[in-house]
Amino acid sequence: MTSIGARMALWYTMAATATLGCVFVVGYHYLDRHLTHGLDILNESEFRQIQSHLGPEFATSSSPFREMRVREITENAAAIFHIEVQLPDGSVMRSSSLNGQDIPDIAGQWQYNAAVADIGELRVGSFSMQPFQIVIGTPLQPVQQVMSNYVRLCFGLMLGMVLVSLLIGLGLTRMLLQPVRLIRDTANRIRSDNLDQRIPVANVGDEISDLARLLNQMFDRLESSFSQIRRFTAEASHELKTPLSLIRLHAEKLLRDPSLSTQNRESAQVQLEEIERLNRIIEDLLFLSRADAHAIELQIQSFDPVHFLNSFEQDATVLVEHHGLRFESTHNGNGNAMADLRWMRQVLLNLLTNAIHVSPSGGVLRLSSLLLDGEWEIALEDEGPGLPADQRERVFERFFRYQGGGKTYGGSGLGLAISRSIIELHGGAISAESCETGQGLRIVIRLPMPKTS
Ligand SMILES: Nc1ncnc2c1ncn2[C@@H]1O[C@H](COP(=O)(O)OP(=O)(O)OP(=O)(O)O)[C@@H](O)[C@H]1O
Ligand SMILES: [Mg+2]
Predict the structure, then answer these.
(1) Is the CB of residue 405 below 6 angstroms from any atom belonging to ligand 1?
(2) Is the distance from the beta carbon of residue 333 to the nearest atom of ligand 1 less than 6 Å?
(3) Which residue puts its alpha carbon closest to atom 13 of ligand 1?
(4) Which of 93, 147, 295, 363 lies at a CB distance of 3.0 to 4.6 Å from 383, suitable for a disulfide?
(5) Which of 251, 268, 292 is where one domain is finished?
(6) Could you tell me the residue range of the domain that residue 243 belongs to?
(7) Which residues pair with 116 in a beta bridge?
(8) How many domains, in total, are found in the chain?
(9) What is the mean pLDDT of residues 191-215?
């Protein structure tokens, strides 16, 4: 059972039912003893009555007279009591209700339960009335009947208790765990880009509020570490730009020197290329840290995707054909799309550059666009080696470059991370999938669009 609430409700039900069960068991023994004691009192009072009926002269009277008196008394009481009179000569006189059977005797006990065939269980009292012994038995059946009714009632009540306590338990745990659910939902919402959110804490000092306060303190620390890292990246990138420009100026000055040997010219050329690469990485890092800090302002505008794609197709075709590849573009759907045109173009160029790098010569790159009511889907497919399923998400991480695809190129691993940042700033999503043909990679962008109706 995964839910604490369900477990707590179950424990509560078990505890409540077990407590009620214990009360019923104690009640059973108490009631049983009480009713049996009632029968003992009944037997004793019957004995007193017999004693007073027989009178003091009974012991000395003749045998037929005694017999007649005993018969008289026992027959009167036969509706309720079974009576046995044991005479000193060893003979026994019984009430007719006993049908000639003996009431069993238990040596040393004067109040006990005994079973008589055809009559059932009796509560027996054995009384001495010198020189006679008078044994009186009362049927236990009414007591047993009451006890079995009691047991049935208890089982019914226990069943009711299980249902009621389960309902109460579920209601209680729901109420108690409400703050925990609130903590879970807030903690689930907090990500690196919205670390300023906090769990609402009630102004009480219970354990759950303490936990929420501790988590909020942890988020405070995380937020300050994250902003330090972002500030560091932004400042470091910024600080690096000036010395890099100076190095580039020096390298360019060197290249202009006619007395420079061919070997030194080549190394100055390499320096310039590397500086260019470093500059691009710094620009990318600066962009990412600004995107993380939500410092990028999008200029969202409404535009016709057909125009946008036609304009992109012109540049893409030149670029792609330059690398011996082909470019195809299709669009479906009517109406305008909403996005920042400059950044969307940047994302598509990033994807296109990647696809050019990995495509085999003569390969085709296909850009498809589908504008639906509520979403704009743009996908770029290539015929390259594609990516294994477990790497398709990782390529969007910063500085991640997949080396196992056969064709490798000297990228810095930031293009897709930047593309994802831009798409997420638009409130959309970008992901990598395998192509339907089984070969190549398909990068899909989904942007939410306002519904027209
Ligand atoms: N179309 C693709 N097919 C196969 N692998 C790809 C494709 N696009 C990207 N990748 C893999 O994803 C990695 C990350 O791509 P990303 O664009 O982020 O960085 P990069 O191209 O290496 O460098 P940068 O774009 O910063 O110059 C690439 O190194 C490449 O291995
Ligand atoms: Mg790239």
Answers:
(1) yes
(2) no
(3) 401
(4) 363
(5) 292
(6) 207-292
(7) 120
(8) 3
(9) 85
Q: Residue 134 region, left (φ>0) first, then alpha (ψ -120 to 50), else beta?
A: beta
Whether residue 232 is found in the same domain as residue 347: no
Is 188 contained in some domain? no
SS3 433: strand
Count the alpha carbons within 13 Å of 436 in the hemisphere toward its beta carbon.
4
For ligand 1, say whether the CB of 134 is within 6 Å of any of its atoms.
no
3-state secondary structure of 450: coil
CA-nearest residue for atom 28, ligand 1, is 401
Same domain as 420, residue 400 = yes
Check whether residue 313 and residue 413 sit in a common domain.
yes
Which CATH number characterizes residue 280's domain?
Answer: 1.10.287.130
Return the number of other C-beta atoms located less than 10 Å from residue 33's C-beta.
10
395 lines ligand 1 (CB under 6 A): yes
Q: What is the predicted pLDDT for the residue at 406?
A: 67
* Contact of 397 with 346, CB cutoff 8 Å: no
Residues 369 and 259 in one domain: no
Taking ligand 2, which is a single-atom ion, which protein residues have CB atoms under 5 Å away? 354, 411, 415
The pLDDT tens digits of the residues spanning 155-187 come to 999 999 999 999 999 999 999 888 888 888 888
Residue 84 and residue 126 in contact, taking contact as beta carbons nearer than 8 Å: no
Cα of 291 to ligand 1 centre, how many Å? 20
- Of 277, 349, 393, 395, which is best to mutate to test ligand 1, by the most ligand atoms within 8 angstroms of its C-beta? 395
pLDDT digits (tens, 9 = 90+) for 338-369: 999 999 999 999 999 999 999 999 999 999 99
358 ligand 1 Cβ < 6 A? yes
pTM > 0.85: no
Residues 305, 443 within the same domain? yes
The pLDDT confidence band at residue 433, using thresholds 50, 70 and 90, is very high
Pocket mutation for ligand 1, best pick of 273, 325, 348, 354 (most atoms within 8 Å of C-beta):
354
With a 6 Å cutoff on the Cβ, whether 411 touches ligand 1 is yes
* Crossing angle for the helix pair 341-358 and 415-425, to the nearest 10 degrees: 150
In the chain, the percentage of residues whose pLDDT exceeds 90 is 59
**Pick from 128, 147, 166: which residue ends a domain?**
147
Ligand positioned closest to the Cα atom of 388: 1
CATH number at 60 reads 3.30.450
Q: Are residues 233 and 305 in the same domain?
A: no
Residue 36 pLDDT grade (very low, low, confident, very high; cuts 50, 70, 90):
very high
Q: Are residues 360 and 387 in the same domain?
A: yes
Q: Burial, 129: exposed, middle or buried (Cβ in 10 Å; 0-12, 13-18, 19+)?
A: middle
The finding on whether 382 has its CB within 6 A of some atom of ligand 1 is yes
Q: Work out the average pLDDT over 269-283.
A: 91
